[in-house]
From TrEMBL:
Gene3D superfamilies: Tetratricopeptide repeat domain (1.25.40.10). Residues 96-106 have a biased composition (Low complexity). InterPro entries: TPR-like_helical_dom_sf. This is Tetratricopeptide (TPR) repeat protein. Residues 92-116 are annotated as: Disordered. SUPFAM superfamilies: TPR-like. It comes from the Bacteria.
Length: 466
């Protein structure tokens, strides 16, 4: 039965279509989906439904495609209503609406005019994560916009009658901040973002001390603040600030424990395990990964358990325990093959076949199995979604290092050249440190022209800091 609710035309999306016909634009959407490994059945009718306002929020697949087509734009920039409205009151009011192509999230929802607008500063916070351009531009906008977003309303603790309230708008703002930071990291790496992300994290934790009328909002604020701490911690981790990362991860874990949030606790232990491995504390890595698995048993997500088991495998590899590592790798692959589930956390969007191969490559590399490591690293590069530019650079660099250690200097230098191409747009201290180690290994082969070309270029890049 069709909904009787009036539709409001989506003029923002219509402007994105430009001079193309609905059919031409639908074809462009399908092409963009193939580029990132998505499958959408987009046609002129679907485009018409979006532009008429009948579809007020795209499902996750369409959202990923639209983000790919229009980098830097959030769904709100494209005229869509936030997904939380679809899942909340708006979705319930329209439960009798006809389902749209592509899944239940393609549903009509309440008019944007009905969305709570209690705090204008929350809108500023959301817009701060909608900038496009290079990593430097995006990061600068991130910091500058957020510096003023809660400057007067949340700049100092409030007491007594001045005590602030937090509601739906603030919860949405924190959640969108997390998504925007992750998007910037996927595309550009952490180095240019970390310092500017500290302010929104501080604001998010201030919100936990605000008055909230609904427990559901308080729960979302705790989860959002914890996820934001993990995101900022990862930025510190990837930019080589291990002590800062450890502090942020511990903060997220404490938040998870206070809120009784098993998913957040599993995520916090997952990141802690990863950090411990990179910091040379493999036994701590194993323990943290096992703790993450205990927390995740309450969540029906085989893919999450697969990732956490891979974290454990990395710790065993660091300890040189080949048998335990192989056993963990086998369990991880078995769990991965069970496929995705509704309970898979949003933050795991990066975890696909490429990540599975890349993490296994790192295990074999730690065990000194260079040929086997290179085989998996090559698969990781070949399977990687172009959206995850930082991970493409990471696994390309991993492959270069494994080839160098395995006695294939020419091939290592060629992959090193490719890594340098990728690092022109990706700012990751972790990846650059790995590539520098590979360059040092290749110096003994400088007489080889291919190797010499790579070394000269790498030295030039290192000298300019580019």
């Amino acid at each position: 039965m069709a909904s009787s609710q009036a539709h409001h035309p989506n003029t923002a999306f219509r402007q994105l279509r430009g001079a193309r016909s609905p059919g031409e634009f639908a074809a462009a959407v399908r092409r963009a989906a193939r580029e990132i490994g998505e499958q959408v059945s987009c046609d002129a009718r679907y485009i018409g439904r979006v532009e008429s306002g009948e579809i007020r929020c795209p499902n996750y697949a369409y959202e990923r495609v639209f983000r790919h087509m229009f980098p830097g734009r959030e769904p709100a920039d494209m005229g869509f209503v936030p997904r939380d409205v679809v899942r909340g009151r708006g979705a319930r009011e329209n439960a009798d609406a006809a389902p749209a192509p592509g899944g239940p999230a393609d549903s009509p929802v309440e008019s944007p005019a009905h969305i709570p607008d209690r705090h204008k500063e929350s809108d500023v916070l959301r817009r701060a994560f909608m900038t496009s351009g290079t990593a430097a531009v995006a990061a600068t906008s991130l910091g500058a916009s957020l510096a003023g977003s809660f400057g007067t309303a949340w700049g100092a603790p409030a007491t007594g009658r001045d005590r602030r309230r937090a509601g739906e708008a603030e919860a949405v703002a924190v959640e969108q901040a997390v998504r925007r930071i992750r998007l910037l990291d996927d595309r550009h790496g952490a180095d240019g973002i970390y310092r500017r992300a500290a302010r929104p994290l501080r604001v998010a934790y201030e919100l936990l001390d605000a008055d909230t009328r609904r427990q559901s909002v308080a729960d979302r604020l705790h989860t959002g603040a914890g996820e934001l701490a993990l995101s900022v911690g990862w930025l510190a981790h990837d930019s080589g600030r291990f002590a800062d990362a450890r502090s942020h991860y511990a903060e997220a874990l404490a938040t998870a424990r206070m809120a009784g949030d098993a998913a957040l606790e599993a995520h916090a232990f997952c990141n802690t395990a990863f950090l411990a491995r990179d910091a040379g504390r493999p036994r701590e890595s194993v323990r943290a990964a096992q703790a993450a698995q205990r927390a995740a048993r309450r969540l029906p997500s085989p893919r999450l358990m697969s990732l956490l088991t891979l974290r454990e495998a990395g710790g065993w590899a660091g300890l040189g325990d080949r048998a335990a590592c192989e056993a963990a790798l086998l369990r991880a692959r078995d769990l991965f093959e069970r496929g995705p589930a509704q309970a898979d956390p949003e933050w795991m969007s990066f975890f696909g076949p490429a990540e599975l191969e890349g993490l296994e490559a790192q295990c074999w590399s730690a065990l000194g199995e260079w040929s086997r490591a290179a085989e998996h690293a090559r698969r990781a590069v070949d399977l990687q979604n172009p959206h995850f530019a930082r991970n493409t650079a990471l696994f390309t660099t991993q492959l270069a290092g494994d080839l160098a250690r395995g006695g294939a200097p020419d091939a290592a230098a060629e992959r090193g050249e490719r890594a340098l191409d990728l690092l022109a747009e990706v700012q990751s201290t972790r990846v650059r440190t790995m590539l520098a180690a590979t360059a040092r290994l290749l110096r003994r082969y400088r007489a080889d022209s291919v190797v010499a070309a790579f070394l000269d270029r790498h030295e030039g890049v290192a000298a300019t800091g580019a």
